[in-house]
Amino acid sequence: MKLNTGERWDLIDRISKETVTFGAYRHTLKDAIGELTVKPMTGIPVAIAVMYGFWSVFGSFAGFFTDGFFVRLFDAYWLPWLQEVFPGQGEWLYAIMVDTGGIESGEFVLSSNCLESFGVLTSGLFVAIGVVLPAIIIFYLMLALLEDIGYMPRLAVLLDTVLHRVGLHGYAIVPTILSLGCNVPGVTATRILETKKQRFIMMTLLAIFIPCGAQIGIMQDVVPDLMGWILLYLIIGYFVFGYILNKIVPGKAPEFLIDVPPYRRPLLSNIGKKVGGRVRGFFVVAIPFVLLGCAIVGVLYQLGVIQFLGDTLAPVFVGWFGVPKETAGPLIAAFLRKDLAVAQLSAITMTPYQMITAVVLVSIYFPCVATFAMMLKEGWKELIGSLAVLAVVVFTYGGLIHLIGILLGVA
Amino acid sequence: MKILLMGHPNVGKSVFFNRLTGANVTESNYPGTTVDYTKGWMKIEGGDVEIVDVPGTFSLDPKDRAEEVAVAMLHENRDAKVISVIDASKIERGLYLAMEIIEEGYPMVIALNMRDVAEDKNIVIDADRLERILGIPVVSTVAIAGEGIKELVSRLKEAKPVNVDDIIANAANASDTTGAADAGGAA
Amino acid sequence: MKKKLSEMDYNEQGTVTGIEKDLRKRVAGMGIRVGKELRMVTKQPIKGPVDVVVDEAETSLGLDMAGKIVVEVTK
């Protein structure tokens, strides 16, 4: 026999009356902290402090391992050793695997560091292990901590007001923050949003405006001074285009309804398991694509395809976006791995504002292939929709950033 | 035999799952979606039993993708036993989902998880009495500390389908036996 | 005094007396039902969500939803 909703609740009320007693309300310290972190007057400053703390721990931890250890290991030992022992210096296989080198006054010269060598075994490995690995580990560790303490729902409550304006609700902070680690689980997490419209908006915004941990890690390493501007452009884009999407995408944007669980003490073994699983999941996706991306871009350079594309697209790059035409190569690599693309950008000579524009372009232009595959799984119609939005965003926003640069006199 | 772990989101289902299964765990995508779920194996009285960590759902009336998958997984496994994981500090809403599943005829045991959180909030649950009313095993657990897991496993064999009419009758009987004090409160 | 949940003040308590039909099922899943005692914890500014405690469990819900729930305020 089946009951209807009303009958079922009646039965539960009867059962509960027989078996459950709610004691007198005790206001504990945990409750007090819980309320302080959700009330706007105190909660918002705490949220800002938490985010700032997250950011500084991320930066210093990743920097400590990358600059203090991996840069030395790769540039002082690994690169010179490979340059020495890998056969066929100057030939195409050497160029792709180890070092493309450069021509100085007619002579072939070797690169001095792993960001300029562009080889699969040098730049590829350095980016994957030296830069991205520490960034991803610390990111997921801190995220797991915030999750297991029970802070995320409170952050969601505090951010609901703004996220509701872009057709989402507070819970959208979960896929957004996850995407800051890697867009692939971020896309997966969009399933917690209720309607098609919300999932579409979320997925599109993630794919376009949220840089992944790998990309943030490498930006921190190669363009630390410009980070603030790059992130500012991305955040503004997230909200501006989210607002527009909310207006034009048909469908419902239901309101927010979530549990705010009490704080609890995180369990080390649980955090370990979570971080381990996520880091492993990330690397299964990342390593092959970094190496493959490096190889493909290397081959395309050798075949002259990149130079050809650069020349053909020069009017768009130089005229519309205001960046050097050499950025064509990294933009192609960006489809495979954005971290790799940023590393390649850093080796091109350009002004700081051009660098900001180019890195923002790398971020907003095309999702990496793994994210792309994940979005396809969600449905090809949505994917095509997202790509259409993306094309519009890249051209308008890219042009706009250039225009702002011109107006500020820095482009 | 197959066992489905079901419950609301954030009731400690995954911790439960990790406690029950060994290292042999696989994460898969539910066909045609990006919703993933985990399954693993455990030994009960010498036999291998498959355990599935079903995505969290509030009811069998789904409101998002993950919940659709949860309901579909339940309906695909008509011969499965269900471990209904309930947050003891939010027992009423947990019972709602449990009742829905019981009404569909699934054999079930209930894990009243996060007993420590309920105690923190001064919520006291008479698990024995709940067990008598529902006619299925009800075990208090703190999955994160491993408490109650063994008892739960040992009582899995007692899981059986129950008739809702019996539960209604038991609930009525229970209130008769509690005497005048409670009856007054019930009116 | 009857009030909409969206209009309640900080720390006011009361009993839920009515919920609009289309919302009943959804909020029931969070423990909010007719007859339940409820305490309003906080509201976010600029039409943000409302935080309530029912049966010692805290829930946050959008302002429009809160406008569809009527509470008999007791203190």
Description:
- The complex is a heterotrimer of chains A (411), B (187) and C (75).
- Chain A is mainly alpha-helical and 411 residues long.
- Chain A has one domain.
- Chain A has 18 helices and four strands.
- A two-stranded antiparallel sheet of chain A has the order 2-3.
- The N and C termini of chain A lie far apart (73 Å).
- Chain B has 187 residues and is α/β, with parallel strands linked by helices.
- Helices cover 40% and strands 25% of the residues of chain B.
- Chain B contains eight helices and eight strands.
- In chain B, strand 2 and strand 3 form a beta hairpin.
- Chain B is globular and about 50 Å long.
- With 75 residues, chain C is an alpha+beta fold.
- Helix content of chain C is 16%, strand content 43%.
- Chain C contains two helices and six strands; from the N terminus they run E-E-H-E-E-E-H-E.
- A six-stranded antiparallel β-sheet of chain C has the order 1-6-2-3-4-5.
- The relative contact order of chain C is 0.35.
- Chains A and B meet through helix 1, strand 1 and helix 17 of A and helix 3, strand 7, helix 5, helix 7 and helix 8 of B.
Helix content of chain A: over 70%
CATH top level assignment of chain C:
Mainly Beta
Distance between the terminal alpha carbons of chain A, to the nearest Å? 73 Å
Structural class determined from secondary elements of chain C: alpha+beta
Order of helices and strands of chain C: EEHEEEHE
- The number of helical segments of chain C is 2
Pattern of helices and strands of chain A? HEHHHEEHHHHHHHEHHHHHHH
Tally of structural domains of chain A: 1
Distance between the termini of chain C: 9 Å
Uncertain segments of chain A: none
